[in-house]
Amino acid sequence: MKVLKNYKELSSTVADIVEAQITERPLSKLILPTGSTPLGLYEELVSRELDWSHTITFNLDEYLMNIDHPYSYHSYMKKNLFDRTNIYPDNCHFPFRPTLSFEDKMYVNRGIDLCILGIGSNGHIAFNEPGSAFDSRTRVVDLSLQTIQDNSRYFDSVEDVPKQAITMGLRTIMESKKIVLMVNGKHKLTILNVAMNGEITETVPASILQRHNNVEVYYCD
Ligand code: PGA
Questions:
Q1: Rounded distance, CA 74 to CA 58, Å?
Q2: Does ligand 1 lie within 6 Å of residue 120's CB atom?
Q3: How confident is the model over 192-209, as pLDDT tens digits?
Q4: Which of 59, 122, 151, 184 is flagged as catalytic?
Q5: Among this protein's residues, is 124 annotated catalytic?
Q6: Which of 163, 160, 121, 126 is nearest to 142 (CA)?
Q7: Is it the case that residue 103 has pLDDT exceeding 90?
Q8: Is residue 129 flagged as an active site residue?
Q9: pTM score, whole prediction
Q10: Handedness of CA 120, 124, 128, 129 (dihedral sign)
Q11: Looking at residue 71, what is its pLDDT?
């Protein structure tokens, strides 16, 4: 794990990795996260005015809600990254049904080059909540009470948070060639430690990352 000085450094360090990936291999396929952690990363990437014209992206998850809703992850990505770069909207994918054709798209030609992840306070990655099978693939899931509570800060009230989502599976994520986990804040340190150094168990979905041979973890207080 690399400990960075502050959030700005966390964002620019991961931006360096994304920049190197899409510059050295313009046809790269990326998996991208939402949430509060990657906001600085997207801001930094936008400011670098990179060429995204050959890049293909897949988002980790989406609420089961109208995708035009201002709090959908489609809206989040458009607002924070896609509408501010030259990426082609047709190259930006979100999990959809039938889930098998979503996964097929990821594997056309070759698989995912780089996956950027965050971790939830209950150890989830994407919306793979505790108890998710390690061999899971893209599917519809019920959100845990903890996640609904955590994400209520983006909505007008906790009742407005969707109760279900569609998420990439843990197996899908693990098939990425490289994974970068971004963690911002002391409140995530305990779960991060459990995930990275504790037992590898479906109770802590992020613990599966211990089995990947190319994971980098970046943390700041
Ligand atoms: P956060 O969410 O970046 O808003 O803390 C991370 C996650 O739930 O994966």
A1: 11
A2: yes
A3: 999 999 999 999 999 999
A4: 122
A5: yes
A6: 163
A7: yes
A8: yes
A9: 0.96
A10: negative
A11: 94
